[in-house]
Amino acid sequence: MTGTFSTDFYIDNNGKIRYDAISFNADGFNNNPFKGIWTSYKLNESKKCNWGDYRIPECEWKNGCDVGAAEFSINDKYIKNGWENYTRAWNTYPESTEVINARQKEKEKWWTENEKKTTNR
C-alpha cells in the first residue's frame, strides 16, 4: 500500500499528545485521512484505497460517494458495496433493536479478532 496519511493532534498542558477533536461538532469535521493505492499480492491488481475519520478523501458529493451535508452519508447507489450495516447503524432513526445491533457491530474491534487468529497459527 502506498499513499499519504495525515493526522491532526495537539499537545495538552501535561505534555500528552491528544487526538484533535476540538472542532468535532463542526460541519465537515474529519481527521486521519489516508489517500492511496492498495495492490493485491496475489493478483498484482491495484485499487484506490482511501479512508478517514468522519470523512473519506476523494469521496465528496461531487464524486457522488458522500452525499451528506454536515456529516458523512453514503450515496444510496454505493450502499450495496459493503455500507449496509454502517447505513443501518448511523443513518437510521428512530433507534430500534436493529439499529442498536448495527451500532454494536460497527463498534466491534474486528481487527483484534483477526489478530488473534493470525497469532494462533
List its traits:
121 residues; alpha+beta; 3-stranded antiparallel sheet; two-stranded antiparallel ribbon
| Class derived from helix and strand content | alpha+beta
Report Rg. Answer: 17 Å
H/I helix tally: 3
Could you tell me the number of beta strands?
5
Q: From the structure provided, what is the oligomeric state, counting identical versus distinct chains?
A: single chain
Q: Mind describing the biggest β-sheet?
A: 3 strands, antiparallel
Average residue-wise pLDDT:
89
Distance, first to last CA: 25 Å
**Strand order in the largest sheet:** 1-4-5
* Beta-strand share of residues: 15-25%
Unreliable parts: none
Level of helix content? 10-25%
- What are the secondary-structure elements, in order, as H or E? EEEEEHHH
Shape: globular
Describe the overall structure:
The chain has helices at 84-90, 97-107, 110-119; strands at 2-5, 9-11, 17-19, 31-39, 46-53. 23% of the residues lie in helices and 22% in strands. α1 crosses α2. The chain is an alpha+beta fold and 121 residues long. The two termini are 25 Å apart. The model has no long low-confidence stretch (mean pLDDT 89). The protein has a 3-stranded antiparallel β-sheet, with no helix packed on it.
